[in-house]
């Protein structure tokens, strides 16, 4: 799934094609935007100061032309934030959003931060969907090209959020990194990371480590094992222990009074899950295709057809419950955010 687009600028459109405007802004790639100085001055202290100074005459032009360093696509989006029209939908490209933020800072336009934060949050949502989709497609060990592409965009967004003090964006995109394999993340470099301090990168790694610790919480895993035993016991009348029915073909983990607690294969699944969570703490680990296959492999010793059938029917729903529990645990873990100086 593509999370960015790189369409060429299609040309200047309304309201920036008004021939009665009193100023022309020229983009770095040569496009002319016809604007009104009073609108720019109201939105930008930098433009207001510029317009208060004597302007050199532009040869052969009846309306002053002001060359700018922004390309047409970025300038168009910036002006649509400023102009008193309906809120624009900004391009979903990290490069363009970064250019808009830089221009907003340069021209001192406060409206830019909120507009770009909203656009970045939309992009993060698409990133999360794309990462989930990649896992659902059965990518093994997280070494596919798509994971690398998603890691590039994710790290770009994190770096930009830190640089411009967008805490909500940083928190949400940090959460997305949990479902990306660590080897892919640490081997991915984007130029935006060069603008960050070492402490900003360390905070992202610390967040991941804390999430891994919380998600593999022993008490939570024990409670889920009991949940399976109580809700999804997939067997008929094979072994009656204290008026409770258990499959005699499944080995059982017992408590210190030798009471059955959970099937051995489920204990092995949670052991496998704990290891995988330390590699990739996101909820996707629990109910991925790989997780379902592992559970079935661990339970392959049980030769009872009815037990096997019912386990295969019910375990995916149980794995979703495990994933939801992990997600709930992770929602309480904060990213230690600090605006990049």
Automatic annotation (TrEMBL):
Q: Which PROSITE patterns match?
A: BTB (PS50097)
Question: Segment Disordered: which positions?
Answer: 1-23
Enumerate the spans annotated as BTB domain.
21-83
The cross-references to Pfam families, in alphabetical order and at most eight, read: BTB (PF00651)
Q: What is this protein called?
A: BTB domain-containing protein
Which branch of life, at top level? Answer: Eukaryota
Q: Which SMART domains match?
A: BTB
Record-linked InterPro entries: BTB/POZ_dom (IPR000210), SKP1/BTB/POZ_sf (IPR011333)
Query: What taxonomic classification does the UniProt entry list for its organism?
Result: Eukaryota, Fungi, Dikarya, Basidiomycota, Agaricomycotina
């Amino acid at each position: 799934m593509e999370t960015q687009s790189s369409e060429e600028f299609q040309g200047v459109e309304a309201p920036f094609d008004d021939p009665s405007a009193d100023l022309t802004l020229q983009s770095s790639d040569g496009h002319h935007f016809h604007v009104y100085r009073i609108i720019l001055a109201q939105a930008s202290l930098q433009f207001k100061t510029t317009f208060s100074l004597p302007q050199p005459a532009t040869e052969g032009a009846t309306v002053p032309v002001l060359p700018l360093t922004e390309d047409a696509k970025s300038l168009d989006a910036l002006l649509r934030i400023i102009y008193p029209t309906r809120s624009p939908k900004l391009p979903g490209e990290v490069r363009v959003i970064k250019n808009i933020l830089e221009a907003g800072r340069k021209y001192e336009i406060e409206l830019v931060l909120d507009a770009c934060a909203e656009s970045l949050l939309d992009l993060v949502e698409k990133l999360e969907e794309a990462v989930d989709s990649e896992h659902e497609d059965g990518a093994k060990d997280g070494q596919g090209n798509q994971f690398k592409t998603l890691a590039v965009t994710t790290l770009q967004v994190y770096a930009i959020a830190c640089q411009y003090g967008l805490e909500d964006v940083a928190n949400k995109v940090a959460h997305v990194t949990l479902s990306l394999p660590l080897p892919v993340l640490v081997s991915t470099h984007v130029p935006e990371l060069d603008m960050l301090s070492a402490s900003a990168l360390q905070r992202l790694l610390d967040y991941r480590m804390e999430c891994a610790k919380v998600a593999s919480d022993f008490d939570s895993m024990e409670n889920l094992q009991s949940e399976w035993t109580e809700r999804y016991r997939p067997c008929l009348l094979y072994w009656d222990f204290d008026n409770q029915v258990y499959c005699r073909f499944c080995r059982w983990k017992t408590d210190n009074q030798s009471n059955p607690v959970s099937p051995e294969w489920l204990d092995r699944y949670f052991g496998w899950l704990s290891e995988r969570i330390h590699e990739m703490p996101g909820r996707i680990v629990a109910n991925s295709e790989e997780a379902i296959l592992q559970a079935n492999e661990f339970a392959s010793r049980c030769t009872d057809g009815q037990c096997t059938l019912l386990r295969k029917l019910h375990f995916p729903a149980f794995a979703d419950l495990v994933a939801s529990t992990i997600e709930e645990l992770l929602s309480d873990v904060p990213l230690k955010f600090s605006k990049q100086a």
